[in-house]
């Protein structure tokens, strides 16, 4: 099975693209568990993410992905993964990330681990959209560099998606079509 992960800084169009790709390929997409989890926390307590949230978020993300993997044969679109959680954890907590998340995010042979065919790294040339959870509109370039550096450090395959929604979708389809032909 081909697993494609949309990966990159906040407010770069990952969710929109995940939905479009899933519809185009008539497959499932895995939503970002962290967003739902943290929105509920914000709505009930007006609190943002804390260190103790990281493991529950990771478990929730893996559960969603594993459930979706059981329901598709050829292609799964993931609107984030644990590598993104690792990057954010290290950024917000001065290099700290729970070892369970690090291991799962970077271990190619881990059950449910990093066995993605391609990372589609979303560039920061999309308009910033304000919401309850997004908090770094002025750090987008720095975040993009951090996200890309992580992919390079891990040696994971990736392509950068730039441009408007239509251009990104077209490029993503071209990339995925090549992967499907190889499979």
From TrEMBL:
Keyword Transmembrane set for record: no
GO MF assignments: ATP binding
Protein name in the entry: ATP-binding protein
Domain NadR/Ttd14 AAA residue range list: 3-168
Keywords for this protein: ATP-binding, Nucleotide-binding
Domain of life: Bacteria
Matches recorded under InterPro entries: NAD_biosynth-regulator, NadR/Ttd14_AAA_dom, P-loop_NTPase
Gene source species: Aequorivita lipolytica
Gene3D superfamilies for the chain: P-loop containing nucleotide triphosphate hydrolases (3.40.50.300)
SUPFAM superfamilies in the cross-refs: P-loop containing nucleoside triphosphate hydrolases
């Amino acid at each position: 099975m081909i697993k494609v992960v949309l990966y990159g800084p906040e407010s770069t169009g990952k969710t929109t693209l995940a939905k479009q790709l899933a519809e185009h390929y008539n497959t499932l997409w895995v939503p970002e568990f962290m967003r739902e989890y943290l929105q509920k926390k914000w709505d009930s307590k007006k609190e943002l993410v804390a260190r103790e949230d990281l493991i529950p978020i990771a478990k929730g993300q893996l559960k969603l992905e594993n459930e979706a993997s059981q329901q598709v044969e050829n292609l799964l679109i993931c609107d984030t993964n644990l590598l993104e959680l690792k990057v954010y954890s290290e950024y917000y907590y001065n290099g700290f990330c729970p070892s369970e998340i690090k291991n799962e995010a970077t271990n190619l042979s881990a059950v449910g681990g990093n066995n993605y065919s391609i990372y589609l790294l979303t560039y920061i040339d999309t308009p910033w959209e304000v919401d309850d959870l997004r908090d770094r509109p002025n750090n987008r370039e720095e975040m993009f560099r951090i996200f890309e550096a992580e992919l390079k450090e891990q040696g994971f395959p990736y392509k950068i998606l730039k441009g408007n929604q239509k251009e990104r979708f077209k490029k993503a389809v071209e990339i995925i079509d090549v992967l499907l032909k190889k499979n």
